[in-house]
C-alpha cells in the first residue's frame, strides 16, 4: 500500500510513525510545505488537555487522551527519552475565577497526582489566589521531539518531501491512502469553515532555577523545558492570523509572569515566538472518506483541528486515524 501523509508537524509525524508501526509493508511518504516551521515548534509541550477539547464523543475523547499519555509515558521510561524530548514535570495551577478553573475533567484520573494545593504552596507565588491544584504530568519538547520523529521515520525508509499541494484530490492518482494532517491548512484544502486560527505568542527565557510549572488562571503560564529554557505565556487571539511579533504582547506576558513569580525578573529572553493554533469549532476532525480523481480512487483520512492540544493528543488521534484507514481498506476490499 502506498501512503501519503500530508503535514509535517506533530500530528503528521506521529501519524506516520503509527502507520509504520501498524502497516509494516506500507510505503509511506510524508509531505510538508515546511518541516522546520510549524506551530508545533512554538508549543511548550506540557500535557494538559483543557475541558474544551473534544472529539466526536466523550468516549472517543477520553480514549485519545489516555492513549496519548501512555504513548509519551512509554517514551519517558525508555532510553530514548532525552533524545525524544519527553520528561515528567510537576507544578501548579492557581485561580480566582472559580474552583472549577483548577480542576481538570480529562486529567484528574489519568495523571499520577492531581490534588488541591496546600496553604504553604499558595505562598510559592505572588497574588491572593483563592483556589489551587498541584499535579504531575509529562512534557514533550518539540524542538527535540520532531527531529527525533523524523529520524525514526527515515530509519524505516519513510521519505520526507518538502512540497505544497493545492488539493488533496490530486494525490488520488498515485496514492492508495492519504492522511490529511495539515492543521490550519485544511481550511483551504478541505474548504472547512469551522477552522479558525487562535494566535499565540510566547517568550522563551533562560531560567535554570525554575523546575516547576505554574499557571495563573490559564492566560499566564510558566513552563520549564529542556536546556534550562522556560516558556512564558501567553496570548489567545481568536481569529487572528498575524504572525508578526507584537512588542506589546511580549511586555504584557513578561509583566504578568514576573508579577506572578518575581524570580523571573533576572531571566534573560532567548527568543520570542508566534504560532497559529488550528482550532476547529465543535470538535477535532478525525474522519475517513473515499475520494475519486478520474478513474483513480483513494482513502482519505482527516486528522486535524486540535487547537492548542496537538502535542498532547497527537498519538491518540493518530492511532484512531490509522484504525479508520484500516477499517475502510478492509471494507473496500470486501466489496470487490
From TrEMBL:
GO terms for cellular component: cytoplasm. The keyword Flavoprotein applies. Residues 2-323 form the FAD dependent oxidoreductase domain. Keywords: FAD, Flavoprotein, Oxidoreductase. The keyword Endoplasmic reticulum does not apply. Its cofactor is FAD. FAD binds at residue 182. D-dopa binds at residues 221, 277, 308. Pfam families: DAO. One of its GO terms (biological process) is D-amino acid catabolic process. GO terms for molecular function: D-amino-acid oxidase activity; FAD binding. Belongs to the DAMOX/DASOX family. This is D-aspartate oxidase. It comes from Habropoda laboriosa. The lineage of its organism: Eukaryota, Metazoa, Ecdysozoa, Arthropoda, Hexapoda.
Amino acid at each position: 500500500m502506498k501512503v501519503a501523509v500530508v503535514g509535517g508537524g506533530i500530528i503528521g509525524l506521529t501519524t506516520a510513525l503509527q502507520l509504520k508501526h501498524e502497516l509494516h509493508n506500507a510505503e509511506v511518504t510524508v509531505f510538508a510545505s515546511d518541516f522546520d516551521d510549524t506551530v508545533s515548534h512554538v508549543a511548550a509541550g506540557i500535557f494538559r488537555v483543557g475541558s474544551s477539547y473534544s472529539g466526536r464523543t466523550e468516549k472517543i475523547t477520553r480514549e485519545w487522551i489516555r492513549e496519548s499519555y501512555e504513548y509519551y509515558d512509554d517514551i519517558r521510561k525508555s532510553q530514548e527519552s532525552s533524545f525524544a524530548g519527553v520528561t515528567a514535570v510537576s507544578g501548579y495551577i492557581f485561580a480566582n475565577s472559580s474552583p472549577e478553573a483548577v480542576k481538570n475533567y480529562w486529567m484528574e484520573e489519568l495523571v499520577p497526582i492531581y490534588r488541591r494545593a496546600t496553604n504553604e504552596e499558595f505562598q510559592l507565588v505572588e497574588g491572593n489566589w483563592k483556589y489551587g491544584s498541584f499535579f504531575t504530568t509529562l512534557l514533550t519538547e518539540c524542538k527535540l521531539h520532531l527531529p527525533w520523529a523524523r529520524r525514526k521515520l527515515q530509519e524505516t525508509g519513510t521519505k520526507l518531501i518538502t512540497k505544497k499541494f493545492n488539493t488533496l484530490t490530486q494525490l488520488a492518482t498515485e496514492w492508495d491512502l492519504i492522511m490529511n494532517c495539515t492543521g490550519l491548512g485544511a481550511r483551504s484544502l478541505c474548504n472547512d469553515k469551522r477552522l479558525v486560527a487562535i494566535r499565540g505568542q510566547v517568550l522563551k527565557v533562560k531560567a535554570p532555577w525554575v523546575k516547576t510549572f505554574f499557571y495563573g488562571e490559564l492566560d499566564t503560564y510558566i513552563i520549564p523545558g529542556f536546556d534550562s529554557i522556560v516558556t512564558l505565556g501567553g496570548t489567545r487571539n481568536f481569529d487572528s492570523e498575524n504572525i508578526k511579533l507584537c512588542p506589546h504582547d511580549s511586555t504584557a506576558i513578561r509583566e504578568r509572569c514576573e508579577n506572578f513569580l518575581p524570580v523571573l525578573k533576572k531571566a534573560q529572553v532567548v527568543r520570542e515566538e508566534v504560532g497559529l493554533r488550528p482550532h476547529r469549532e465543535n470538535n477535532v476532525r478525525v474522519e475517513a472518506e473515499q475520494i475519486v480523481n478520474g478513474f483513480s480512487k483513494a482513502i482519505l483520512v482527516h486528522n486535524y483541528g486540535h487547537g492548542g492540544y496537538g502535542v498532547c493528543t497527537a498519538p491518540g488521534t493518530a492511532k484512531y486515524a490509522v484504525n479508520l484507514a484500516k477499517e475502510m481498506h478492509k471494507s473496500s476490499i470486501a466489496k470487490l
